[in-house]
């Protein structure tokens, strides 16, 4: 089995290393010959992962046809908003039988499509030939072979298991599931919440505020996911809470860093100028908000972030806007009998999450922050 990774940014390069360490032959595609040569001959990507030595088995090319030749796995690691034009150009070269895998976390501006939906549309492939990877995956840490876990998801169980085997190493532990919708929404929404965290940090707000944004952000994520047909359990796992905590907590997070620039008073354009890599949450907040409105879901944190990003809300007013919303209850149910995963009917507008741990099912209900 051979893999092609299209995109030699920090995450694409890191995932090429993961695949190689898992024993999967891999070819990395880079836009520039300079980066491709640095990876192949210098075993380093100095632009995105300076100081990280890559396996000698990881080679790169600036010729996309060479990278895709006889590939069984095609890993897509470009920025979310450039995926469509890239696929249009690459479509004739991508092997039809290959499993297409999204490493991206975003929602397409204009169409409000998830990355897997863009892949299915442009390449004319069924959902069971498209997979996603999502979780708390800060690239520099994984490139250093620090222990991490992720979710590999595909509607076809066999394809999910195939992908799991292809990237399972001693330091990178992939779990599989079939909830593509939930994994993609988790990856997209957590970037928006990380922008909010960055703003809060820059405004001098403390850990209580950050904890509030993370937990209420999880509620927004789960409400939208449930409305769109995701499995609510996904948001209690690596692709939901796990990714949310890592992105909101780490200074390595580009979305959190971008939010800090906004909180310091920069405009979105100014923040982009000083950001070397793409903060996907900036472009995704508007289409995520459109999805929420389409499905009748309230997402107040997302609304505020979108308004700050667009310039329609002064950043200094962001916290006050959220805090001034009318008070609502947050209700948690009791512990159900051991082995009984049946839950009481949820309150209107809430998302039930059922966690079965040690034979005991705990029913949690997230109520709206309106």
Q: Helicity level, as a percent range? A: 40-55%
The amount of beta strand, in percent, is 5-15%
Fourth-level CATH superfamily of the largest domain: NAD(P)-binding Rossmann-like Domain
Please count the beta strands (DSSP E, at least 2 residues each). Answer: 11
Separation of the first and last Cα atoms: 50 Å
Number of helices: 15
Which regions contain 5 or more consecutive residues with pLDDT less than 50? Answer: 331-370
Show the helix and strand layout.
Blueprint: E1 3-6, H1 10-21, E2 26-29, H2 33-42, E3 59-61, H3 64-68, E4 73-76, H4 83-90, E5 99-102, H5 115-123, E6 130-134, H6 139-143, E7 148-154, H7 157-166, E8 172-177, H8 180-202, H9 207-227, H10 238-249, H11 254-263, H12 268-273, H13 280-294, H14 300-310, H15 318-323, E9 332-335, E10 351-357, E11 360-366
Parallel strand pairs: 1-2, 1-4, 2-3, 4-5, 5-6, 7-8
Antiparallel strand pairs: 6-7, 9-11, 10-11
Helix pairs in contact: 4-5, 8-9, 8-10, 8-11, 8-13, 8-14, 9-10, 13-14
Q: What does the model show?
A:
The chain is of the alpha/beta class and 370 residues long. It is built from 15 helices and eleven strands. The strands form two sheets. It has an eight-stranded mixed sheet, sandwiched between helices. Strands 9-11-10 form a three-stranded antiparallel sheet. Strand 2, helix 2 and strand 3 form a beta-alpha-beta unit.
């Amino acid at each position: 089995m051979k893999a092609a990774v299209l995109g030699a940014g920090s995450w694409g390069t890191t995932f090429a290393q993961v695949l190689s360490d898992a024993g999967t032959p891999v070819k990395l595609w880079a836009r520039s010959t300079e980066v491709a040569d640095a990876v192949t001959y210098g075993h380093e990507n100095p632009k995105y992962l300076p100081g990280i030595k890559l396996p000698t088995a990881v080679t790169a090319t600036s010729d996309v046809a060479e990278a895709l030749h006889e590939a069984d796995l095609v890993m897509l690691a470009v920025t979310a908003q450039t995926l469509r034009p890239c696929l249009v150009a690459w479509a004739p070269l991508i092997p039809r039988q290959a499993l297409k895998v999204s490493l991206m976390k975003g929602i397409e501006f204009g169409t409000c499509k998830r990355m897997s939906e863009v892949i299915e549309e442009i390449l004319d492939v069924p959902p069971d030939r498209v997979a996603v990877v999502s979780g708390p995956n800060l690239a520099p840490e994984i490139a250093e072979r620090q222990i991490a876990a992720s979710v590999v998801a595909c509607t076809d169980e066999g394809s999910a298991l195939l992908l799991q085997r292809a990237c399972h190493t001693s330091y990178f532990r992939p779990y599989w599931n079939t909830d593509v919708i939930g994994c993609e929404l988790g990856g997209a929404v957590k970037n928006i919440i990380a922008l909010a965290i960055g703003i809060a940090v820059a405004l001098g707000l403390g850990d209580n505020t950050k904890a509030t944004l993370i937990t209420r952000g999880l509620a927004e994520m789960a409400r939208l996911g449930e409305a769109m047909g995701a499995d609510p359990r996904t948001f209690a796992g690596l692709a939901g809470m796990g990714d949310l905590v890592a992105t909101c907590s780490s200074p390595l997070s580009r979305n959190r860093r971008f939010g800090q620039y906004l909180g310091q008073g920069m405009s979105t354009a100014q923040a982009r100028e000083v950001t070397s890599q793409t903060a996907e949450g900036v472009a995704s907040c508007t289409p995520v908000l459109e999805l929420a409105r389409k499905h009748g879901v309230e997402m107040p944190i997302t609304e505020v972030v979108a308004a700050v990003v667009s310039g329609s809300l002064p950043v200094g007013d962001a916290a006050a806007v959220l805090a001034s919303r009318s008070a609502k209850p947050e209700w948690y149910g009791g512990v159900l009998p051991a082995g009984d995963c049946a839950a009481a009917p949820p309150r209107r507008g809430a998302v039930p999450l059922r966690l079965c741990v040690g034979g005991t099912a705990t029913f949690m209900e997230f109520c709206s922050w309106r």
